[in-house]
Amino acid sequence: MDTVKRPRYRDYSGAACPVEGALELLGGKGKGMILYHLLDGPVRFNELKRRMGQITQRMLTKQLRELEYVGLVHREVYPEIPPKVEYSLTDMGVSLKVILLALKDWGESYALPQLEKLQQSADSA
């Protein structure tokens, strides 16, 4: 069983860079995508996995646990057979909505075209 990766506890007060602190909580494989896919409301694990594409079940579970640990995601287990589990954003997670939508817009405008250009350069080399 994987253990949850705990954020590095450093002195983030005073002169520390708040961007570094934010990236410490959000950094990891697929965490931004997970948060983005939870913006519209609760999602069951398998639906989230379908939306995520290439992520493995193990990696998705690990990233969800880390996001839950830092307080961005809530995990709700319903007492049913088979068990029903839904993931949703906490209030702190919802506070990232403007940032996540801005990243989406930036990605569409700049990142995807740049990545496509780099791929074409690599293909022609």
Summarize the structure.
The protein has 125 residues and is mainly alpha-helical. It has helices spanning 18-26, 31-37, 45-52, 57-69, 91-94, 97-124; strands at 43-44, 73-78, 84-89. Helices cover 55% and strands 11% of the residues.
Describe what you observe in this structure:
The chain is mainly alpha-helical and 125 residues long. It is built from six helices and three strands, in the order ααβααββαα. It has helices spanning 18-26, 31-37, 45-52, 57-69, 91-94, 97-124, and strands at 43-44, 73-78, 84-89. A three-stranded antiparallel β-sheet has the order 1-3-2. Strand 2 (73-78) and strand 3 (84-89) form a beta hairpin. The longest helix is centred in the last third of the chain and has 28 residues, at 97-124.
Cα(first) to Cα(last) distance is 43 Å
Q: What characterizes the major β-sheet?
A: 3 strands, antiparallel
User: Helicity range of the residues?
Assistant: 55-70%
User: Helices and strands: which structural class?
Assistant: mainly alpha
Percentage of β-strand residues: 5-15%
Low-confidence segments: none
The overall pLDDT, averaged over residues, is 87
* Number of separate helices: 6
Overall 3D shape: globular
Give the beta-strand count: 3
With strands numbered from the N-terminus, the spatial order across the biggest sheet is 1-3-2
Order of helices and strands: HHEHHEEHH
Give the C-alpha Rg.
Answer: 17 Å
